[in-house]
Design goal:
Blueprint: H1 27-43, E1 68-74, E2 84-87, E3 94-95, H2 97-109, E4 114-119, H3 125-136, E5 142-145
Parallel strand pairs: 1-4, 4-5
Antiparallel strand pairs: 1-2, 2-3
Length: 153
């Protein structure tokens, strides 16, 4: 049974191809698929991963500061600035990731292969991860994360 168009004469507007018997018109199915796609795109919400509040360390092994090299990431003073990477324990020359790698390589050559990475609480996890990757890329370097003491109650 052939389908008939909206208009009776095939020469006028919309005279498309005729659907043969046994053939299925999938146009409505495609329309429904697009409507569902649009519905789910509009109805869903894009959420990032929530921030993780890392608890203070309860059990850890201290690293002797005489045999360790410290790299510190300081939070920006105001929102317009970016965090600062400092070679040393809170004070020292400012550096970038390439400088961190060279600093760690020099420390490993001087037999100070324990590297302590300290970061202030407002520093993003992404920057801490980048700096830790730069430290771990040096052969012989052992990375330790500096954590705050457990608050006294």
């Amino acid at each position: 049974m052939a389908r008939r168009g909206l208009f009776s004469d095939a020469g006028s507007f919309g005279g498309g191809r005729k659907v043969a018997d046994g053939e299925m018109d999938i146009t409505p199915m495609i329309d429904v698929t697009f409507l569902l796609l649009i519905f789910f795109m509009v109805a869903s919400t894009m959420q990032g991963t929530p921030d993780v509040d890392v608890p203070p360390a309860q059990h850890s092994i201290g690293v002797d500061s005489a045999s360790a090299t410290v790299v510190t990431i300081l939070a920006p003073k105001n929102s317009a600035d970016s965090p600062h990477i400092v070679m040393g324990d809170g004070a020292g020359e400012e550096a970038d990731l390439a400088d961190v790698r060279r600093y760690v390589e020099e420390s490993v050559r001087d037999r100070k292969n324990r590297i302590v990475l300290k970061a202030e609480g407002d520093v993003s996890h992404g920057l801490v991860d980048e700096v830790s990757q730069a430290i771990k890329s040096v052969d012989g370097a052992e990375l330790f994360m500096g954590v705050g003491d457990k608050p006294k109650e």
